[in-house]
Design goal:
The complex is a heterotrimer of chains A (272), B (471) and C (340). Chain A is α/β, with parallel strands linked by helices. Chain A contains 12 helices and 7 strands. In chain B, 73% of the residues lie in helices and 2% in strands. Chain B is elongated and about 85 Å long. Classes of the chains: A alpha/beta (272), B mainly alpha (471), C alpha+beta (340).
């Protein structure tokens, strides 16, 4: 009886308790002492990720007009609304599906570290190309914010973006930014707070236009996974990785690491 | 624990049914959705053309008439500004650290009564090597890197790679190697780090291994000094300047040609096993932010490289002092080695002093000439020049330097071969360490270290014998 | 003076000796490395591979075929078979030689390594197609099953080798054989290449030289005893039937995607636009993934925007970004021209 109460209380708290997976984060080399939330910074190369990272943390990483500056992973911290945030700058990649060290680092961090928010920085002048990565990240995580950077360049080139429509299509907050002029940082921080604390619930877009043959296979497999792991949020993505023969995911499934990513499973076990 | 084998087994069956096109198909689906979202949200103003500004600049930079001239003028300008601009601060730092702080330190040490050995190791050895490296290295790097970074931030450098790619493609390399090479003219260690922007494994290794063929900042003074003494002096006086410049440029060009030839050879032989993929994004032009760039390039590149160089220079300074001062039966270690290495040195048109100098001055090419002078004075038993055993020095007068070198038995052949050997020898220890850091491979570090050394010995050997056969 | 000439000669001689020793592939060093291979085991494994091939293709195996395939004398081949039998790897019927279960597993293990290695060379290295087979022939006897599994995981557990042959799974599972020689189809059939036989080498080299590769779509124009004629990527190729028989194909039903009247991206003039129809399978591994990631997928609008000073590469406008692609790759990307 007491147990039930406790259990219930835990579940309640967990609406806004951090979602990140602390064990995995430590395994991934992140020092997590004294941090409430973990924020990942992802995006294509040369989109201004490092500039946003520097704006938030006050560190000075070199940012250049060259794809591929951040080779290793950089991390820093900041405080907002009395919460301590850990910010992790992931390597800039065009995709998470191919096989390169950079993409593995970025993918594994988002999947296994389960950051409380992933900020996806995109170059607004090259939105279509950048959406490739955005849609892939939204397959993995529920909690993301789109930072639409380089809005000044967009205007300079006589283009505009319908922000509300974009937010509706993607199901996540969209923040227009000019990171080099430090514009848009306040709104970004506001959404970081709301998404990480669970006040804002994202409904991320998931791929719908797979070819019929592939769609059938993905559905069949993800149904099978769901039978075993009913609370795993991204079964379709796991199914797609299995169909691609991704050994890391196959191993992670067999070793139970994927199973550990189920949110409520973990909390249900804890009180015992 | 749960068993997932039926899931993975089924996945394998399904993979055979779908076939190998799975990855292609997924990306195709993602992009078709991306295109749909983008067309729903991005509006381009009808009456004005977007990217007209970028297109105009690109048209000029890739035009047949202006493309190459602009590139050469810009690069020449960067080098000119670097050389001219660093002259004054370099001499200022040298004056401060070598002519003022060094005697001052000596004074203090004699006041507090430091023993001869401690004084020599710390002040004449470690401090002097460090001071030398800072004085020669810091100003040019502090000027060269920020200008380079500004061009990079503006978006010009990717266009250079784009335009130069045809040359590098033929060598099995990537157009971006043009940039790592240019960076190498500033500092090879920085050039090696810059190879990160090449995302194809084979091409990146090529850029790293061949970067040493770019004549770095520390080797230009050697080239100019030796060319003045040994090339400029053999032609009529009013052609001396021209001949000197031509000789130095010829060596630098030889470096560029060799880096292409070596790239080609490696890509056809030991690097065949590395994957190769070409893609080059041409980013939009963006106005560079000057202050931020100055700050970050100073921190990221200049101080980063300088720090590594200092760390290596300190112990080397100690070694240099020790080999000149540890005596066995009245003869120093350095002299033993020089006597032993002299036949080999002479065989390849150099001498024992030069070989020893290149071994103990491995941390930085900047201290090769001071070490050579010190060792020459020591072995030739000249008196009244220099500051004693183990103390590196340089002379303001070219004539005096010539006298010392001639007393050491140098000929025109020694001069020519030293210029060649200065181009073709192992990278400095800072660069070697950086290559290891970047490739994380002992094998490629060894290739990058020994390949130029072997080439240097071979070339010097051939030149020496041709020269002797002719004369 | 004489001394000088002498040392010069000695020096050059030394250099030549060094070169001879380390010459890749043919130098003494690599010969010595190859000699380290256990030649007896190599023979056994080659024989098992040959037996498995016969079984998979439903062609009978005989003493002659073994001695021919392994270039052994008849009595040597007979000795080898006896050895295989004593090891329990084959059983001898009245007029045929069959693999035992154990022998089949052994063979599949070797074939797995061979095909994985070919795939690895094709995807992850710059080694030319003509060298894949020979290199894999060496490696198949060296790599252990565990190392093979690691390699497979590393390159994304591929299903087929670059010739289109299926790679057996680590448990020794192999899909049913698909595809028949092109010579068995009729005029006007649309077919897709699923396999190019890599032995004998001379024939494979000819097929590669014709520009054929797995995944290509063909339309058959003529089949007769003298020649086989078909259309591929807007080119007509004529082959002798004996050579064409080394191309295995399946009937292709997605008629809407048969590539006709296509242009290559490299043919696009600056200022012109096109619609990507597909990337040829000759672009593999990292290069293919890179192009896909940058948005070069079927349906992508692409415009030649700017040409580099050397004439190659060309900058293309692809999904809002300008990407430089070299002619070599651009000629493997197929497009339809569009007029805006």
């Amino acid at each position: 009886m007491n147990n039930w109460n406790l259990n219930n209380k835990q579940m309640e708290q967990c609406v806004n308790c951090p979602v990140h997976n602390i064990d995995n984060l430590v395994k991934l080399g992140i020092n997590m002492s004294n941090f409430d939330y973990v924020i990942a910074l992802a995006g294509n190369p040369n989109t201004g990720k490092s500039t946003i990272f520097n704006n938030l943390t006050g560190l000075k990483q070199h940012t250049g007009n060259w794809p591929g500056k951040t080779v290793a992973r950089a991390e820093g911290g900041f405080v907002y609304n009395n919460n301590n945030y850990k910010l992790v700058d992931l390597p800039g990649t065009y995709s998470l599906l191919s096989t390169s060290t950079d993409e593995d680092i970025a993918r594994n961090f988002i999947l296994f570290g389960k950051p409380d928010v992933t900020i996806i920085v995109v170059d607004s002048t090259r939105l279509e190309r950048n959406l490739n990565l955005v849609l892939q990240i939204l397959e993995i995580t529920d909690r993301a914010i789109l930072a639409l950077n380089l809005m000044d360049e967009l205007k300079r080139n006589n283009m505009s973006i319908d922000l509300r429509q974009l937010a509706r299509e993607l199901g996540i907050p969209v923040v227009p930014m000019e990171a080099r002029q430090k514009k848009g940082m306040d709104e970004l921080l506001k959404y970081v707070d709301e998404v990480s604390s669970g006040k804002f619930i994202c409904k991320p877009r998931r791929l719908k236009s797979l070819s019929p043959k592939i769609d059938n296979a993905v559905n069949e497999l993800s149904k099978k996974i769901k039978e075993q792991l009913p609370n795993l949020p991204n079964t379709r993505w796991v199914a797609m990785r299995l169909l691609e023969g991704d050994q890391q995911i196959i191993d992670a499934l067999n070793s139970g690491e994927i199973g550990n990513l189920e949110p409520s499973l973990k909390h249900a076990e804890e009180p015992v | 624990m749960k068993n997932y084998t039926d899931i993975t087994n089924r996945a394998n069956e399904l993979r055979w049914e779908i076939g190998e096109s799975f990855h292609d198909s997924i990306i195709e689906s993602i992009y078709s959705e991306a295109a749909a979202i983008s067309s729903n949200t991005v509006k381009t103003s009808k009456n004005k053309d977007s990217y007209s500004f970028d297109a105009k600049i690109d048209k000029i930079l890739t035009s047949k008439a202006l493309g190459f001239p602009i590139m050469f003028v810009l690069l020449a300008l960067v080098f000119w500004v670097t050389i001219v601009g660093s002259n004054y601060p370099s001499s200022l730092i040298a004056e401060l650290l070598l002519d003022n702080v060094h005697p001052w330190l000596k004074q203090i040490s004699s006041d507090i009564g430091l023993s001869y050995f401690v004084d020599g190791i710390l002040i004449d050895g470690a401090y002097l090597a460090m001071a030398w490296v800072v004085a020669v290295m810091l100003p040019p790097m502090a000027i060269f890197f920020p200008i380079f970074t500004l061009l990079e931030d503006f978006g010009y450098l990717p266009r250079v790679s784009f335009n130069m790619d045809f040359l590098f493609r033929k060598a099995g390399a990537h157009g971006k190697q043009a940039l790592t090479m240019a960076m190498g003219f500033g500092c090879n260690a920085a050039g090696v780090v810059a190879a990160r922007v090449i995302d194809s494994p084979r091409e990146r290794l090529l850029a790293i291994i061949t970067n040493n063929f770019s004549l770095c900042n520390g080797r230009w003074p050697t080239q100019i000094l030796i060319a003045t003494i040994f090339i400029g002096s053999v032609v009529p006086v009013h052609f001396a300047g021209l001949a000197t410049a031509a000789a130095v440029v010829a060596v630098a060009l030889l470096g560029i040609i060799l880096s292409l030839v070596v790239s080609w050879t490696l890509s056809k032989s030991i690097l065949k096993g590395e994957a190769s993929a070409f893609s080059l994004e041409l980013p939009p032009y963006r106005p560079p932010r000057i202050l931020q760039t100055l700050y970050t390039s100073l921190i990221d590149r200049t101080l980063f490289v300088l720090w590594r160089a200092i760390v290596f220079a300190l112990p080397a300074g100690i070694v240099i002092w020790l080999v000149a001062n540890i005596n066995i039966q009245g003869i120093s270690l350095a002299e033993y080695f020089i006597d032993w290495a002299n036949p080999l040195g002479l065989l390849i048109g150099l001498n024992g002093v030069i070989l020893l100098a290149y071994i103990i001055a491995i941390p930085a090419n900047e201290i090769v000439i001071p070490t050579v002078l010190m060792l020459t004075v020591m072995t030739a038993r000249l008196s009244g020049i220099g500051e004693g055993a183990g103390v590196m020095f340089e002379l303001d007068s070219i004539k005096d330097t010539t006298t010392i070198l001639q007393a050491g038995g140098w000929t025109t052949l020694t001069g020519i071969n030293l210029m060649l050997f200065s181009l073709l020898h192992n990278p400095c220890s800072t660069t070697i360490y950086t290559i290891y850091k970047e490739t994380k491979s002992v094998k490629w570090t060894a290739v990058a270290t020994f390949l130029p050394l072997i080439m240097g010995f071979t070339v010097c050997f051939i030149v020496a014998h041709l020269y002797r056969l002719i004369s | 003076m004489d001394n000088e000439v002498f040392t010069t000669l000695v020096g050059f001689l030394l250099l030549i000796l060094l070169l001879l020793f380390f010459l890749p592939g043919r130098g003494l060093f690599s010969k010595w490395k190859r000699a380290l291979l256990d030649s007896k085991r190599v023979r056994i494994e080659d024989a098992l591979k040959h037996l498995y091939d016969c079984e998979y293709n439903n062609t009978g195996c005989s003493l002659d075929s073994i001695s021919g395939n392994l270039s052994l004398k008849r009595d040597e081949a007979a000795g080898l078979i006896q050895k295989l039998q004593s090891l329990g790897l084959v059983s001898l019927g009245r007029d045929k030689i069959e693999l035992t279960g154990e022998g089949r597993n052994y063979a599949l293990r070797i074939i797995r390594v061979h095909r994985l290695w070919e795939r690895y060379l094709a995807d992850e290295t710059s080694i030319h197609a003509s060298e894949w087979h020979e290199r894999a022939e060496d490696v198949e006897h060296i790599l252990s099953a565990e190392q093979a599994d690691e390699l497979a995981a590393q390159i994304g557990n591929p299903l087929t080798d670059p010739h289109g042959d299926p790679i057996p799974s680590s448990e020794g599972k192999m899909p049913v054989k698909q595809g028949v020689p092109i010579t068995q189809f009729c005029v006007n059939d649309h077919v897709k290449i699923i396999h190019l036989e890599d032995e004998p080498k001379t024939i494979f080299a000819q097929l590669v030289a014709e520009g054929l590769y797995v995944g290509q779509h063909l339309r058959i124009i003529e089949i007769s005893e003298e020649r086989v004629k078909f259309e591929v990527d807007d080119e007509v190729i004529v082959l002798a039937p004996i050579i064409a028989a080394n191309i295995s194909v399946v009937k292709f039903d997605e008629t809407n995607r048969v590539r006709r009247n296509l242009k290559k991206l490299s043919e696009l003039k600056v200022g012109d636009g096109g619609l990507v129809v597909g990337i040829s399978n000759l672009i593999r591994g990292q290069q293919r993934r890179r192009l896909l990631d940058l948005g070069v997928v079927p349906g992508t609008k692409i415009k030649a925007e700017i040409q580099s000073l050397g004439g190659d590469p060309t900058g293309y406008r692809i999904r809002g970004a300008t990407i430089a692609i070299r002619k070599k790759q651009a000629s493997q990307i197929f497009i339809k021209e569009i007029n805006e």
